[in-house]
Write the structure tokens for this entry.
Amino acid sequence: MMGDLSLPMLIASVLAASAPLIIIALGETLAEKSGVINLSLDGAVLFAAMAAFVVARETDSLLFGFFAGGCAGMLTGVIVGYFSIYLHLSQVAVGFALSLLCRDLAYFLGNPYSRVQGPTMLNSKLPFYDSLPSSLQIILTQPLTVWLALLLVAVIYYFFSFSKAGLCLRSVGENPAASFARGLNPAKIQMLAVLGGAFLVGIGGAAYSLSLKPGWGRPQGAEGIGWIGLALVIFGGWNPIRVALGAMLFAFLQVSGIGLQDLFPGIPSQVFQTAPFPLMIFTLIFMHYSTSRSRKQGYSSGRLQRIAGKLFMSRAPKGLGQSYRQE
């Protein structure tokens, strides 16, 4: 127990809070596996959250809202992809400038819709809900974004590990020149990866304004999430499973901060609101250091160790952040 938060409630809260971040981080993982860094994440999340809420309110449709959020995220992907892949400009400079632009545009364009009510995604129940124990009923009563996030983890892991298209994408991220020599089109593959990843980032942003933190305003509640998503991809080793676990860890720190605030009312609330960010960074650094040592020391020949190594060990694509000019 943490304050009035029971264990089933804690698990349910962590799943709900981590779902948008998982979707965002998986979208960035998809782009970076192809060799492109999209640093516009933080602004793109806010821009997508604004667009999703505005469209959902005007159309009274959550489906249109999520689609608008995905398209808003994809728009940032078009800009990042065109300037970095085809014009060969610095991926870091383009992404960072776009992040600031999207953030300011989100606050400016969304100002008329600040603090107004709009449609909100409600929790859904499974078909066999009534036959489950009460603790499982609490845990499994979740918005659809939770199930989407968990499904994406499995789909993207399978895509990277077992599909031909995923192998082509990974080869471009490792060595675009060699991929071109084998008949692939690195620019096309990278652009598709950036657009697909940016669409997922937009869906994650929409999940904040339409589900986790309903509404729009300044602050919206998703500020800084893009930078956490970038950190998760890096310290998660570009591995979808590790990235998702890192997102759940960050959500746990956020939920724990709410419970600790009730236990220690004398401490300013701003401390608990900001504490998860530095704690998450230090935790990810520790995890990265630990796994790096394990990689250097090597695994034993046991079957479980080999499976764990395959699931959780990964490294940065060799071509990450490099501009490839086709001969």
Remarks:
- The mean pLDDT is 85.
- The first helix runs from residue 7 to 33.
- The CA atoms of residues 32 and 320 lie 6 Å apart.
